Every structure is written in structure tokens, then in C-alpha cells.
Amino acid sequence: FRPPHKDFRREQSVAWRQLLTNAYPNISLLSKIYHATYDDKCPLCGEHPTLYHVTWVCQKSKVLPVNKTPTPEQWEAVLSCSKREEQLKLID
């Protein structure tokens, strides 16, 4: 995977590294830590809210890139991209 773009601010670089290591805060992770506060379901569609799901797959999201057939290969390609604009799509 690619390092964060050289022009990123520190918090953007941290977010990018968290995505690459599957440590980015997400509902699935938070539900394991705070059982009473977070449900282990995507609030938009009811699916299991993995990091991959909430940042790439959920078809009910209004902030994700429009992609009717998202695949793991496309996700890997974005994580491997060195272009600033592409990296920002996932962290902003």
C-alpha cells in the first residue's frame, strides 16, 4: 500500500495510515468497545458495518463514491493509489 500523500496534513496522514491498517474508527470497532452505545449494524442498511463496508460498499450512503458494483479489487486499488485526490475520497 502507498504512504499518505506528501501534501497531507498530519491528521490526514494519520487517517490514511489507520485505513491501511484497519484501525480507522468505525461502527464495527466501536461496537466491540462500547457495546451499549454502538450497534453492530450499519445504521443505513443494517449490514455488518466493517471498515470496508462503511467506506466503500454501503449502497445507502450519500457520501461514498457512486459505485453500483464495488469490489475488493477496487478497494485495494484505491488504497494503493498515490494520487492525493483519490486518497482524500476515503478520508475526507
For this entry, give a set of tags.
mainly alpha, 92 residues, Putative tick transposon
Secondary-structure blueprint:
Elements: H1 10-20, H2 27-33, H3 51-57, H4 72-79, H5 84-91
Number of helices: 5
Helix content: 40-55%
Order of helices and strands: HHHHH
Unreliable stretches: none
Number of discrete domains: 1
- The counted number of beta strands is 0
The outline comes out as globular
Structural class: mainly alpha
The largest sheet, given as strand count, sense and whether it forms a barrel, is: none
The end-to-end distance, rounded to whole angstroms, is 19 Å
Mean pLDDT: 88
Percent in strands: under 5%
The whole-angstrom Rg is 14 Å
Organism: Hyalomma excavatum
Protein name: Putative tick transposon
3D architecture notes:
- The protein has 92 residues and is mainly alpha-helical.
- It has one domain (10-91).
- 45% of the residues lie in helices and 0% in strands.
- It has helices spanning 10-20, 27-33, 51-57, 72-79, 84-91.
- Helix 1 (10-20) crosses helix 5.
- The radius of gyration is 14 Å and the shape is globular.
- 12% of the residues are buried.
- The mean pLDDT is 88.
Q: What is the gist of this entry?
A:
This is Putative tick transposon. 45% of the residues lie in helices and 0% in strands. By secondary structure, the chain is mainly alpha-helical.
